[in-house]
């Protein structure tokens, strides 16, 4: 499209489309809650057109009334992955620290941009049960005491 936006639609099993949101950044990941009443998404918003920098953030989309609730703004890092717990009560995501010029004698893992990952943190975000009824209520965020990449809940 002319505005270079990306749109997120939900499509029913009968083929009915409903537009949920637009962003001038990217839609990185979305997961339905087990009750299929909310959709949790990791999306970005363009913050600098010249350097094309994107600001990632987590949102909750109430599918009944199409309300979009921002949950958390994240650092400007595209290598974030999220995973919604099987019961829908928490979101696990990672945060990596990178360097563009690592020491040559030390083996390292690289991210998608080719930068060396020097550290990683895991975070747990607990959207409160009444978040959709009270948008002023803040979700609970906790840094976990272990490192990791690409977190994934097991059923």
Structure description:
The chain is mainly β and 155 residues long. It is 0% helix and 48% strand. The strands form 3 sheets. Strands 7, 8, 9, 10 and 11 form a 5-stranded antiparallel β-sheet that branches. A hairpin with a 5-residue loop joins strand 9 and strand 10. The relative contact order is 0.15.
How many strand units? 11
Number of helices: 0
Order of helices and strands: EEEEEEEEEEE
Largest sheet: 5 strands, antiparallel
Beta-strand share of residues? over 45%
Radius of gyration, taken over Cα atoms and rounded to an integer in Å: 17 Å
Find the structural class using helix and strand composition.
mainly beta
- Quote the average pLDDT: 84
Note the overall shape: globular
What are the segments in which pLDDT stays under 50 over at least 5 consecutive residues? none
Span between termini:
39 Å
Helix content: under 10%
What is the structure about, briefly put?
This protein is an all-beta fold. 0% of the residues lie in helices and 48% in strands. The strands form 3 sheets. Strands 7, 8, 9, 10 and 11 form a 5-stranded antiparallel β-sheet that branches.
């Amino acid at each position: 499209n002319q505005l270079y936006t990306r749109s997120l639609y939900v499509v029913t099993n009968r083929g009915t489309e409903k537009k949920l949101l637009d962003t001038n950044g990217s839609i990185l990941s979305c997961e339905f809650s087990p009750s299929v009443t909310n959709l949790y998404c990791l999306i970005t918003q363009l913050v600098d057109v010249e350097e094309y920098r994107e600001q990632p953030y987590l949102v909750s989309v109430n599918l009944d009334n199409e309300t979009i609730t921002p949950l958390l703004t994240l650092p400007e890092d595209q290598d974030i992955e999220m995973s919604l717990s099987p019961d829908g009560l928490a979101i696990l995501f990672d945060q990596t620290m990178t360097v563009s010029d690592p020491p040559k004698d030390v083996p390292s893992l690289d991210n998608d941009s080719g930068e060396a990952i020097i550290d990683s943190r895991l975070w747990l975000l607990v959207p409160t049960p009444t978040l959709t009824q009270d948008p002023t209520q803040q979700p609970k965020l906790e840094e976990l005491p272990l490192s990791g990449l690409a977190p994934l809940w097991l059923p």
